[in-house]
Design goal:
Length: 294
């Protein structure tokens, strides 16, 4: 099975789970927004806003997978795999802007605490927690190596944690009457969002800028080819990058002795097999150069 076909199959299997998670997240977001306004709970509204960003993230992930499943064309020979990375990058940026607004609201509430309908807050927060738990479970069963799907999964993890925090805040307010915990929990949720958003932006930006994959050490690759493949004398102009999540490409100039074409083909097969087994690189473009003896 080719790597492209394998990726296509993984994405097809992920679509139904993401679609169901989309429906559940939209339902949970609607109830938390309404419940937050009715109970006057900023932490509940923050969690609903968090779910709104997740709804956007899941929607982007869903449509990015649809694009990635489209066949390659003459103008886009690798297909539309990069669409998922672009979606992950946009998701990270949107999360940071939303978090900035929620932090501002939390500061305002911290300075002027407001009364909260705790029973209604707890009821809605509990419902949101159940929704987030189901959605997180669904996405946990998808391909964790796919950066775009992983970004959606992290959204759900963060939302589940924030829902737990909101429920905890509601319990504290119920038993102590201290409403200041509400904006504090909102601020805590925002910190989690920003941390994950920054990581997501860095990972996706590295791919978009075609940085060397994190698991590859260029010097190690050169050393392995020279020391473990008989007939390889030098490796020059080696470049490696990520096409999409778990899809890596590599080009290199390999210096070998003058030989028959059949022998060169055998050597090429050994190099490609080694790169795939040792470094998980399946897209290669190796150019042979002849060793000129003095």
């Amino acid at each position: 099975m080719s790597v492209a076909h394998s990726h296509h199959q993984h994405r097809a299997q992920s679509l139904s789970r993401i679609r169901l998670a989309l429906i559940l997240t939209a339902l949970g977001m609607f109830f938390e927004f309404i419940g937050g306004f009715l109970s006057n709970s900023l932490s509940l509204i923050s969690d609903a806003g968090h779910m709104l960003t997740h709804l956007f993230a899941l929607g982007m992930s869903y449509f990015a997978i649809l694009l990635a499943m489209r066949p390659s064309t003459k103008k886009r020979t690798y297909g539309f795999y990069r669409a998922e990375i672009l979606a992950a990058f946009i998701n990270g940026i949107v999360l940071i802007f939303i978090s900035g607004y929620l932090v501002y609201e939390a500061i305002q509430r911290f300075m002027s605490p407001q009364k909260i309908d705790v029973k209604e807050m707890l009821l809605v927060a509990g419902f949101g927690l159940v929704i987030n738990g189901i959605s997180t479970y669904l996405l946990a069963k998808t391909d964790s190596h796919d950066l775009n799907i992983r970004s959606a999964f992290l959204h759900e993890i963060g939302d589940m944690i924030s829902s737990i925090a909101v429920v905890g805040a509601g319990l504290v307010i119920f038993y102590t009457g201290n409403n200041i915990i509400d904006p504090l929990i909102s601020f805590f949720i925002c910190i989690l969002i920003v941390i994950w958003a920054i990581r997501l932006i860095i990972d996706s930006a590295n791919i978009l800028l075609e940085a060397t994959p994190a698991h590859l050490d260029i010097d190690e690759v050169v050393a392995v080819l020279k020391n473990e493949v008989a007939g390889v004398h030098e490796v020059n102009h080696l470049h490696a990058w990520t096409i999409a999540s778990s899809m890596y490409a590599l080009t290199a100039h390999v210096v070998i002795e003058d030989c028959k074409l059949s022998a060169a083909n055998e050597l090429l097969e050994k190099i490609n097999k080694l790169l795939e087994e040792r470094f998980d690189v399946e897209h290669t473009n190796i150019q042979f150069e002849c060793l000129f003896k003095k």
